[in-house]
Write a structure and sequence with these properties.
Blueprint lengths: L4 H10 L9 E4 L4 E3 L13 E4 L2 H6 L3 E2 L14 H12 L7 H6 L4 H12 L3 H18 L4 H7 L12 H5 L11 E7 L6 E5 L4 E6 L5 H11 L3 E4 L3 H14 L16 H10 L8 E2 H7 L6 H9 L12 E2 L12 H14 L2
Helix pairs in contact: 12-13
Length: 347
């Protein structure tokens, strides 16, 4: 039987156990997702979207329902994993490190393999995604990004630390700036991304599961002396359109305005990155040569790593001198995917 929205909605209403594992239901009004047998009150069909896997639901910004617990696999979740999930259910803002796992009597590598096998992500990525999604949904519900981060104990998707004062060096009541950076979520074929924009242009485009996302948002908030709030402007709307065209193979150059913040050397490196032709690659040494700084290879590589506008400033086109794919903040698999896409549509 081919699943469609009507069939899945009826199964969801009936709490039909035959559909367990076949889909997950994301509730748009609450930001949670459920298994088909959930006993929670059912929303209207237009307020539900369906996902084939747990990973797809969580990557779209949904949090697991605390009633039906879709992150627990029937008859498949070991007791130690249940113990771990219960801790996170009670304290979603808590960061559990490998050392914490060991104190709990759990082997980090075992936990990592289980989450990769059953949820398509590592345990640490799972924690980070839950924390970011939770904060983001609170903000969408009307809470300010600062209060959401501070009051709920999140370092948050904005990258703020748990104290407003730590970031701005003053109390919230003393902040007089009217500057705003708008933050918006964009879905792509290789995962959700967050973009941020000032009045001048795009200042950030990073994958949601990028480890440095929170600190990068903190950095741009400080650099621009601005508060980050959810929203869209003309630059973000243009970026969304251009990214869609890029992923469809219809765009090889980005025209959206950028507002990068960095040292003069970093700015030069990022400008050089934008000169690498679509569908082609270069090494760090070649990049340094292009800048007339052949001995600055290490500094060039470091500046590449500081690039906060993925894809548009194409650091994915830089590879090792021997042709191997070097590290990429979004993951080497994404780098490979992007290069393959550009090879496919190269003029």
């Amino acid at each position: 039987m081919e699943l469609n929205n009507q069939i899945m909605y009826q199964a969801f209403l009936a709490k039909d156990s035959q559909f367990e594992g076949l889909f997950f239901a994301g509730i748009k009004t609450t930001g949670i997702f459920c298994r088909p047998t959930c006993h929670a009150r059912k929303p209207k069909p237009e307020n539900i979207e369906y996902f084939p896997t747990y990973q797809a639901a969580i990557e779209q910004g949904y949090r697991p329902c605390k009633l039906c617990k879709p992150h627990y696999l029937p008859d498949q979740t070991p007791d130690d994993i249940i113990q771990l999930l219960e801790v996170l259910d009670k304290h979603p803002d808590q960061k559990i490190k490998d050392s914490d796992l060991q104190i709990m009597g759990l082997e980090p590598s075992t936990i990592r393999r289980w989450f990769i096998k059953h949820h398509g992500m590592t345990f640490h990525t799972y924690q980070r995604t839950i924390r970011v999604n939770s904060a983001f949904n609170k903000i969408q519900a009307g809470e300010s990004i600062l209060n959401s981060a501070y009051e709920n104990g999140f370092e948050s998707l904005s990258g703020f630390s748990t104290s407003f004062k730590t970031i701005f060096g003053t109390s919230p009541s003393q902040v007089k700036t009217d500057q705003r950076i708008l933050l918006h979520r964009i879905e792509t074929p290789i995962g959700a991304m967050f973009t941020a924009a000032t009045e001048k242009g795009i200042c950030l485009l990073e994958f949601l599961d990028q480890k440095q996302l929170e600190s990068e948002l903190k950095t741009i908030s400080l650099q621009f002396k601005a508060v980050i709030v959810p929203g869209e402007n003309s630059h973000i709307m243009q970026l969304k359109q251009e990214l869609a065209e890029y992923f469809q193979g219809h765009r090889i150059h980005f025209d959206v305005a950028l507002d990068t913040a960095g040292t003069p050397f970093q700015q030069l490196v990022w400008q050089t990155l934008q000169q690498i032709p679509y569908g082609e690659t270069c090494s760090y040494q070649q990049e340094a040569n292009q800048m007339d700084k052949p001995t600055a290879v290490r500094a060039v590589a470091n500046a590449n790593g500081k690039n906060r506008i993925s894809i548009v400033i194409p650091c994915h086109r830089v590879i090792g001198t021997d042709g191997t794919l070097t590290g990429y903040a979004g993951g080497v698999w994404r780098k490979r995917w992007l290069l393959a896409l550009e090879q496919q549509y190269k003029p």
